[in-house]
Specification:
325 residues, alpha/beta, Nucleotidyltransferase, domain 5, 5-stranded mixed beta sheet, 22% strand
């Protein structure tokens, strides 16, 4: 590899795994490394594991740390992107952890931190579905629902650094209670957790027959996205009903976002969207068109994310480059 090549490292940090990737200026992954997070060992141990993961990726790419221009990290939990302090990350058990400062002291490489969903949205904007756009909103549907906002090519954080909390838009007044404590949040009616709750109720309490019991290995406490997708493909009525309900509320949220921001594109990603594909996207598009004001949806694209599991590390690399400048 040429010494004058332009490399950064992108890190996707979660409650279970750390993924670090050396990425070139074209957004291509040159080398990557992965480690278990092991949050129970404490913040010091996790930060050391992040540093080791980065070193392994750099070494695997036949590079020296001095050839890495910057490090970008997508992290869960409320955080301050300016200081790189993780304010609160329940999955990690962290409170006020200065991740940026600690890693810079450990690796001597400029390091930048942002919310993991913001970073995923940035990845889709730069190298995924959102290329050639300037303004887009990312919505990622998984265990919960997160979002990110790109305005004029830059992440928009808001005054309190909390912009993009799409999952906590109220879409059903007096609806089910959300993990945040409010009622009727999008996350409470359209996330995989919400779908699992609704399917359990239909199957266990209402006695509806469903192939999900077999498809998910008999476990209805945590229904996997792929199992939901296979049940829809098999025409399973309870599952189809739950998916359509989730799509309706996601469509309402998309319409509201279009009314307020009118972005060029809404990118939908996350495990649920990846598994269900058009069986979720098509009803979302129809619901958005139904609830949007006339003409407001014109030219607004509603598309699936394309980077998959790589969105985090690629987006983190974009963050590193933007913040370095």
């Amino acid at each position: 590899m040429a010494a004058n090549d332009d490399y950064v490292v992108g890190v996707d940090m979660g409650g279970t795994k750390i993924l670090a990737a050396v990425i070139n200026a074209k957004g291509e992954i040159v080398q990557q490394a992965k480690k278990a997070t092991k949050p129970k060992k404490g913040a010091d141990a996790v930060i050391e594991r992040i540093a080791r993961c980065i070193r392994e990726a750099v070494d695997g790419a036949d590079l020296k740390p001095s050839q890495i221009r910057a490090i970008g990290i997508g992290s869960p939990g409320p955080l301050d992107p300016d200081t790189g302090i993780i304010i609160f990350a329940p999955n990690l058990g962290w409170s006020n952890v200065p991740l940026k400062a600690r890693l810079e002291a450990n690796l001597s490489i400029p390091t930048f931190v942002d919310n993991d969903v913001n970073v995923g949205t940035l990845g889709e904007y730069a190298f995924g579905a959102g290329q050639e756009t300037k303004n887009l909103v990312g919505i990622f549907v998984g265990t919960g629902i997160g979002g990110g906002i790109i305005l004029d090519g830059k992440l928009f954080h808001g005054i309190n650094k909390t912009a993009g909390e799409v999952g906590h838009m109220i879409v059903k007044a007096n609806g089910p209670r959300c993990g945040c404590g409010n009622f009727g949040c999008l996350e409470a009616v359209a996330s995989r957790t919400a779908m699992t709750r609704a399917l359990r109720k239909a199957i266990l309490k209402k006695g509806k027959k469903s192939v999900l019991t077999k498809l998910n290995g008999g476990n209805l406490d945590l229904i996997r996205s792929n199992a939901i997708a296979r049940a829809v493909t098999r025409g399973d009525k309870p599952t189809i009903k739950v998916v359509r309900r989730a799509a309706k509320y996601l469509g309402i949220s998309v319409a509201s976002i279009v009314h307020f921001l009118n972005p060029e594109m809404i990118v939908l990603g996350g495990g649920v969207v990846e598994a269900l594909g058009d069986s979720l996207l098509d009803p979302i598009r129809k619901a958005a068109a139904k609830y949007a004001l006339p003409a407001t949806m014109d030219s607004v694209q509603i598309v699936a994310a394309t980077l998959g599991d790589n969105a985090g590390v690629i987006g983190a690399s974009v963050l590193a480059r933007q913040r370095l400048l």
